[in-house]
Structure formats: structure tokens, C-alpha cells
Amino acid sequence: MASSSSSSSQSSLPPAAMKDRRYINWAELPSELTSSILVRLGAIEILEDAQKVCTSWRHACKDPSMWRKIVMRGLGVEYDLEVMCRHAVDRSQGGLLEIEIWQFGTDSLLTYIADRSSNLRSLRLIMCNLKITGYGLILAVVKLPLLEELELSHCSLAGESLKAIGRTCPNLKTLKLNKFCHRDCGIVSDDEALAIAAAMPGLRHLQIFGNYLTNTGLNAILDNCPNLEHLDLRRCFNVNLVGDLEKRCLERIRVLRRPNDSTLDYPFHATIVVMDSC
To answer: Which of 4, 94, 161, 232 would give a disulfide with 134, using CB separation of 3.0 to 4.6 Å?
Structure first.
């Protein structure tokens, strides 16, 4: 009976009311609400879906203010992401401040972004080591004088390239240089740590997850990066934080993540791979 009563009450609604219950006129939403919806979408969703909803949404999607930050992830996506990324950069009309790219990209794309985004503050490249080279990255960042944050997670980059990047980015304050973790593989290298120490004195935030640096490299960073406040050494198993080095870190660093600290808040796969040799 309850079901019959409910059906009867619904069928007695005027046609206009029934229509209002089923549909939203997206074109008539206030511009502030439309913008609030769109900024929650990714670049791919905007280019492939949102801008096709209605004319007013298409106009809103072309507003340069919608493209101050671009995030594009190539995880199981069949689109030509490089072409889409260029379209997104063009729509920013030089106002792009942050860009994050996952699993795609080339040196040519980096040059395209840099040539049109001189105000860029944050460049994040994640798992982009197939077609992006250290040389291509250097050529791009030299055109980004305001760059403050650089992330190179699971990307291959030699220490010398890292040093060159640091010297061309005097305003760099945040560096994330993360790797997959291989424990007991016998690799020991301070090349990247020494490059950071030599060329990035203004760093405040440093994340080097899974790095092969030793206490020597860590001491060099502490010696040459006097403004360092946040240091993430998780899965850096060649570092032995004891004695004077531990004391120095605790006195200098406001937020310290130790080699064996939890990785629950780490955004990437953090399983330790134990190997006899690498």
C-alpha cells in the first residue's frame, strides 16, 4: 500500500514539477557555481566532457583562470595526452602556475610548456622517464625563472643534470626526488645529494624517498641548505641517523621523516624490494 500511495502522489505532480525532479538546466546555473564545479574537474574531464555540456559551460572552460593549474594523468587513458596538454597550456594564455604530468610527455612538450608559461611556479613530473631526458628538462627550466617547486618522482635524472637545474632555478624551494625502493641491493651513491648541496641552497622542503645517499651526502645537504625545514628520508636505508647526525637533524629540521618511518601517506607504491644485487 505504501508503494501504491507513493506512486499515486508522484503521478499527481504537475508535468513541470516532474520535469524539475529529473533535470537540471546546467546552462542557467550562476557563473560562480559553474566555476566551482569546473575547478574540481581534471583537465581531461574538462576538455573531453565538461565543455560539451552547453554553450555557457564551453565559454567558462575557455576562461584562462580555469587553467592556472593543470593535472593530467596518463593512467589507462587512450587520448593523445600530449596534444590535449598543449591545448590546456594554450588556454592558460601565459597564466599557468602549476602543472602535473603523469606517465607521458616528451622533451618537445616540456619546451612547449616552458615557452608559454614563464610564470610557472610548480612543475611535477611523475613516472615520465621514457621520453623526457635530463637535457630536455634543463632546456625547459632555464625558461622558468619563477619556478619554486620541482618534483621528479620515479624519473631518471643524473646528478650533473640535477646540478644544472639547480643553478638555473635560483628560487627553487621544494624538491621531490623519489624512487622505487630496493633494499640490500648494494647501491651506494651520493651523486644526487651532492648535486643538491652544490646547487640548491634555497631549499626549504626536500623529499628524497628511496634514495641511495649516505651520511656523507646528508651532511653535505645540511651544510649547504641552511633554510631546510622539511626533510623526508623514508626508505633511504644507507643513512644511519644516530649520534651527532641525528642530533644535527633534530636541531635543524622542523619536520623530519626517518628512513623507517611509515609510508601510509606516501602517494606512490612504497613496497620494499629486497634484492641480493642490482
So the answer is: 161
